[in-house]
């Protein structure tokens, strides 16, 4: 099992850059699996607290029901467009895949989940702006960097 704190310990600079992408706005996107196996995209808020990555939802929300049935989840940071005059100045997009572990409900009955990491990816425009730089981290494999033209 790998938690956010494990990534911070192993690759602090990469973790800092990923977390910064999730902090650009309050709401990001998550993907869950519906009962029939088709994807569901939902808006959500992310919380990085005490070495954990957590998310929540209102009591009875479909996305929470999805995670209770199948805990696989994908998270995408809030997006920002690259500056037209300086694409390499774009900090990129971050994605996290993982397993949602349900926590005790909030006082209002809301659902809360702690995310176990299975993959963390940061994609940005390289310098010069003729390629993408893709950094990915997997538990047990570590951080890898590649370019795509």
TrEMBL record:
<protein>
    <submittedName>
        <fullName>Pyridoxamine 5'-phosphate oxidase family protein</fullName>
    </submittedName>
</protein>
<dbReference type="InterPro" id="IPR012349">
    <property type="entry name" value="Split_barrel_FMN-bd"/>
</dbReference>
<dbReference type="Pfam" id="PF01243">
    <property type="entry name" value="PNPOx_N"/>
</dbReference>
<dbReference type="InterPro" id="IPR052019">
    <property type="entry name" value="F420H2_bilvrd_red/Heme_oxyg"/>
</dbReference>
<keyword id="KW-0560">Oxidoreductase</keyword>
<feature type="domain" description="Pyridoxamine 5'-phosphate oxidase N-terminal">
    <location>
        <begin position="18"/>
        <end position="79"/>
    </location>
</feature>
<dbReference type="InterPro" id="IPR011576">
    <property type="entry name" value="Pyridox_Oxase_N"/>
</dbReference>
């Amino acid at each position: 099992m790998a938690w956010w704190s494990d990534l911070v310990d192993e690759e602090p600079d990469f973790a800092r850059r990923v977390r910064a992408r999730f902090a650009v706005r309050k709401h990001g996107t998550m993907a869950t699996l519906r009962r029939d196996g088709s994807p569901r995209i939902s808006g959500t808020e992310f919380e990085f607290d005490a070495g954990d990555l957590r998310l929540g939802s209102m009591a009875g929300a479909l996305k929470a029901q999805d995670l209770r049935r199948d805990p696989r989840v994908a998270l995408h940071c809030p997006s920002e467009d690259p500056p037209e005059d300086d694409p390499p100045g774009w900090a990129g997009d971050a994605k996290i895949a993982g397993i949602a572990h349900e926590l005790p409900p909030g006082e209002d009955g809301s659902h809360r989940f702690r995310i176990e990491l299975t993959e963390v990816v940061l994609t940005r425009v390289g310098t010069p702006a003729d390629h993408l730089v893709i950094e990915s981290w997997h538990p047990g494999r570590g951080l890898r960097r590649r370019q795509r033209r």
